[in-house]
Amino acid sequence: MITSDFSNIPFVIVFVFIMPTCDSEQVKLSAGYFKRLKDDYSKQIEESGLRNISEKELALLYNNRGHSMYMQVEFDSAMDDYNKALEYDPMLAVALYNRGTVQYRMGNFEAALEDMEKALSLDSCNAEIIDGFNECKRILGEKRCR
Questions:
Q1: SMART domains from the entry (predicted)?
Q2: Which stretches does DSSP call E strand in 39-136?
Q3: The pTM is what?
């Protein structure tokens, strides 16, 4: 998943490194970490009216909370947050990519391709978006050949 770096926004950027193997303790620690992130983003969203943040900043908060839910395999909740992020900033490529990734994981390949295609039109040099777009096209091509 992609996160964006906006230094004027008070939130943590998450970098996830996939380990070749992990034990159950690592999984528990990771789950706790993403739950704490989700809680932190929820608090920031709740307090956003008090801080008078921009719609673009609010879109990033929803996107990042969605990512923390995605990492906990809460796909429906993640989709809700990516949709909310796109209500606040329809041009947020990262939210389109992330929503497309969830669509892909849920087997909705055509919807995933639409999101990836739009994300690619907004951020055509992003390697993750390019890879996601190409993977969706490959899967759909295979399905059509059956």
A1: TPR (SM00028)
A2: none
A3: 0.78
